[in-house]
């Protein structure tokens, strides 16, 4: 008992130290499952506690599911998935729980067999309606017929699933049918659908490889949302329609199985769908997140389709932030010289390490220089400005008489004074401790790069190159790594 009591203050101290970080982290919910069928069930649990209508589609007929999103949304129905020949058990159990009076089956009897329809009926569902078609194009046409009249249509490549998935939530939310095309010609069912619905304007999703110029020119008043990759298409959709969204649904951009049912959830939550690589967030997705300061994410699928590193990046408050890392001096300007060291090289070594950490952490770091080249001070400031950097950190090393030693961090008062001071403080407190140098504190310094930069900015003086003990550390890759980690941690703490 006495032992327990004695250890109590340590526990309390630990809480005090770690609570602020916990508050700063972004919120990430992963909707997982042992199979695509279970993931769809878990998506439905996230969005629906009851449902009078449920949409059921083949878990492998991606095109059918994607054009069904607006229909599912209109009926406030979750999308559940099945195998063709047999109603999958998790889906069966979920239908039994939800007790819908109606199930809409998407696709022909090859996608969803009559046996599955009978199995659904035997669960006590009074109405099972099938929306079929001889092809994905015809299925999409028949789904469009079930949507209320609108003069708009979305046109996407019937085989570029990512594009339909990215636009699904927006189309659903606005009652716009998703019609499908090939890259080179408009299939007859799609032409028929536009004619019968009186389509007068179209939103074309994807680049010219997905929907060619020729198809584009045949569509009624088309607007293209393109991009050089699926990630960029999704980014551009988010930019156009969700510029103030603080939340997004995240799925793997290449393996759709886990994400099929998620598009109607995204519609219900009014969030854009963004894509990721399995192991790391791609640049366009980081931009979409950073540009609207998103902090809440729903991740679709298990750790194979979206690895835990992606979740760590999403949770990290620096995700999508554009952080300018300025390695001081360079080229003919060596900076300070001491104990066999050139300042420009020390600065660049540490800056590169910080850059890598920021990039791995989910941020969008920008380096003033990544090699031994000279830039003027105003060129550094303009580069940060033209990249719309959110933060500016300049890295230097000090020089003076051999007796002077220690670490100090500067800010200035022209722009963002309070935030700049806070940034400097978060970095300084970690940096001198990591380098085990004298703490010379946070100071106001009239240096060009922090005086002229409009975003919050700090200038770090790692240690004194002219002091033997400090210089020994600046030569050591272990200490450079420790210093870079401290700067990185300071930036994370700032956010
Ligand atoms: Zn310097």
Features:
2 domains; binds zinc ion; elongated; Aminopeptidase; 19 helices; four-stranded parallel β-sheet; six-stranded mixed β-sheet; 495 residues; 20 strands; alpha/beta
Topology at a glance:
Layout: H1 2-24, E1 27-31, H2 36-47, E2 53-58, H3 62-74, E3 79-82, H4 89-98, E4 102-106, H5 114-121, E5 127-131, H6 136-145, E6 152-157, H7 161-173, E7 178-181, H8 188-197, E8 201-205, H9 213-218, E9 222-225, H10 230-241, E10 247-252, H11 262-268, E11 273-276, H12 283-291, E12 296-300, H13 308-315, E13 322-327, E14 337-338, E15 341-342, H14 343-360, E16 364-367, H15 377-386, E17 391-398, E18 407-411, H16 417-435, E19 439-444, H17 448-452, E20 457-464, H18 468-475, H19 477-494
Parallel strand pairs: 1-12, 2-3, 2-4, 4-5, 6-7, 6-8, 8-9, 10-11, 10-12, 13-16, 13-17, 17-20, 18-19
Antiparallel strand pairs: 14-15, 18-20
The chain binds zinc ion.
Structure, described:
This protein has helices at residues 2-24, 36-47, 62-74, 89-98, 114-121, 136-145, 161-173, 188-197, 213-218, 230-241, 262-268, 283-291, 308-315, 343-360, 377-386, 417-435, 448-452, 468-475, 477-494; strands at residues 27-31, 53-58, 79-82, 102-106, 127-131, 152-157, 178-181, 201-205, 222-225, 247-252, 273-276, 296-300, 322-327, 337-338, 341-342, 364-367, 391-398, 407-411, 439-444, 457-464. The protein is elongated and about 90 Å long. It folds into two domains: 27-315, no CATH class; 322-494, Aminopeptidase (3-Layer(aba) Sandwich). The protein starts with a helix and ends with a helix. The protein has 495 residues and is of the alpha/beta class. β2 (53-58), α3 (62-74) and β3 (79-82) form a beta-alpha-beta unit. It contains 19 helices and 20 strands. The structure holds zinc ion. Residues 328-329, 335, 343, 396 line the site of zinc ion.
């Amino acid at each position: 008992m006495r032992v327990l009591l004695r250890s109590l203050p340590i526990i309390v101290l630990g809480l005090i130290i770690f609570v602020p970080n916990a508050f700063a982290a972004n919120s990430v919910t992963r909707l997982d499952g042992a199979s695509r069928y279970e993931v769809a069930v878990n998506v439905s649990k996230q969005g629906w506690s009851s449902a009078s209508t449920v949409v059921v589609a083949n878990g492998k007929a991606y095109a059918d599911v994607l054009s069904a999103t607006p229909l599912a949304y209109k009926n406030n129905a979750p999308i559940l998935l099945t195998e063709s020949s047999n109603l999958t058990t998790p889906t069966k159990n979920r239908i039994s729980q939800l007790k819908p009076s109606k199930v809409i089956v998407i696709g022909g009897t090859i996608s969803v067999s009559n046996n599955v329809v009978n199995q659904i009926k035997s669960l006590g569902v009074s109405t099972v309606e099938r929306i079929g078609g001889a092809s994905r194009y015809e299925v999409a046409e028949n789904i469009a017929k079930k949507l209320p009249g609108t003069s708009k249509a979305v046109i996407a490549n019937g085989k570029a699933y990512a594009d339909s998935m990215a636009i699904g939530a927006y189309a659903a939310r606005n009652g716009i049918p998703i019609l499908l095309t090939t890259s080179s010609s408009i299939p007859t069912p799609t032409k028929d659908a536009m004619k019968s619905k009186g389509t007068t304007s179209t939103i074309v999703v994807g680049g010219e490889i997905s929907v060619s110029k020729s198809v584009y020119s045949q569509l009624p008043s088309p607007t293209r949302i393109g991009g050089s990759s699926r990630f960029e298409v999704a980014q551009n959709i988010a930019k156009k329609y969700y510029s103030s969204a603080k939340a997004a649904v995240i799925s793997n951009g290449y393996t759709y199985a886990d994400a099929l049912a998620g598009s109607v959830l995204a519609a219900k939550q009014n969030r854009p769908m963004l894509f990721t690589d399995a192991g790391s967030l791609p640049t366009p997705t980081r931009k979409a997140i950073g540009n609207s300061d998103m902090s809440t994410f729903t991740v679709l699928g298990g750790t194979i389709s979206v690895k835990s590193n992606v979740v760590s990046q999403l949770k990290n408050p620096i995700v999508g932030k554009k952080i300018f890392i300025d390695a001081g001096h360079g080229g003919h300007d060596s900076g300070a010289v001491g104990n066999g060291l050139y300042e420009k090289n020390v600065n660049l070594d540490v800056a590169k390490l910080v850059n890598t950490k920021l990039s791995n952490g989910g941020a969008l770091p920008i380096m003033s220089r990544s090699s031994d080249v000279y830039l003027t001070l105003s060129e550094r400031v303009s580069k940060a400005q033209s990249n719309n950097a959110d933060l500016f950190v300049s890295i230097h090393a000090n020089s003076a008489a051999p007796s002077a030693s220690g670490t100090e961090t500067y800010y200035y008062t022209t722009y963002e004074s309070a935030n700049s001071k806070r940034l400097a403080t978060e970095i300084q407190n970690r940096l001198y401790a990591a380098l085990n140098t004298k703490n010379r504190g946070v100071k106001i310094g009239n240096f060009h790069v922090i005086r002229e930069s409009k975003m919050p900015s700090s200038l770090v003086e790692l240690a004194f190159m002219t002091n033997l003990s400090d210089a020994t550390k600046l030569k050591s890759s272990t200490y450079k790594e420790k210093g870079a980690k401290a700067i990185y941690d300071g930036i994370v703490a700032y956010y």
